[in-house]
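REQUEST FORM: STRUCTURE PREDICTION
Request ID: SP-0412
Submitted by: Lab K.M.
Chain count: 1
Length (residues): 331
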Amino acid sequence: MSQQQISLPAKLINGGVAGIVGVTCVFPIDLAKTRLQNQRSGQQVYKSMMDCLIKTVRSEGYFGMYRGAAVNLTLVTPEKAIKLAANDLFRHHLSKDGKGLTVFKEMLAGCGAGMCQVVITTPMEMLKIQLQDAGRLAAQQRKPVVMAATKLGSANTVLSRSYNAGAAPVVRRVSALQIAGELLHTQGIQGLYRGLGATLMRDVPFSVVYFPLFAHLNRLGQPSPSENAPFYWSFLSGCAAGSTAAVAVNPCDVVKTRLQSLSKGVNEESYNGVVDCVSKIMRKEGPSAFLKGAGCRALVIAPLFGIAQVMYLVGVGEFVLGSSPFNLYSA
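STATUS: Completed
RESULT:
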């Protein structure tokens, strides 16, 4: 690996551009995933991903599918930049002996990348989930058989002003800055890092599976060891590796989403940590609950990482910094 290939500023630019392009394309599916995962048995507002998207457009308009996108687009730049650049740097340092990386070393590099990214991922997901799930709670309150006041614990005051219990709940839009401000005021910095353990449980195994799998699949498309795979092969490799890793860690994503949801619907459980969350879901909803939103998550992650890898590998950062030409055909 040459020094040019591990230029940190270029890698950070590549990761940022990759994240912005990818998130813009798949955010509505991610919103559907969050709402489906937060549904409890017997209280379903949405039957499927398409049903969720259709109902969202009808009740909240087209831009309702992008609720929470602003905070995601703002923070996905450092998040993806850290994740992709950290993996490259760890791989570079682990291969300094001149030998090719073993699968174990590739997994170790992915583990390091996953641990680095949670610094940004946890608060980003925390804020995004509140905004994404607001529409589901409002829709649940509109159902005539469940018009009791929304169950809110002491930690759920952040969004309590968003809904009025009654026959015609009024939804007030709450911004990510307002949520972040109230969390910092009431709980301090740890409020933004609620669900950190579950985020680590999801992101570290994801990276351990994703990065080695992508590297091996992408290598199959290289015309020769000295040439890069074409961009379409990198896209397909990112899709395949991303969807595989996403489904593998979906139970952890369900737990993380439940723990980070501050506002609860009628008769919805509150959880006191990862172990309590897992045991209550298993007891009350069964093992199948851990696969909620798995299809949506695979549909989100596959194109997201396919697009991200193409944007990352074509060298946007190197082109911007003037260290190499932009080449889409040999990503």
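NOTES: The chain has twelve helices and no strands.
Reviewed by: T.R.
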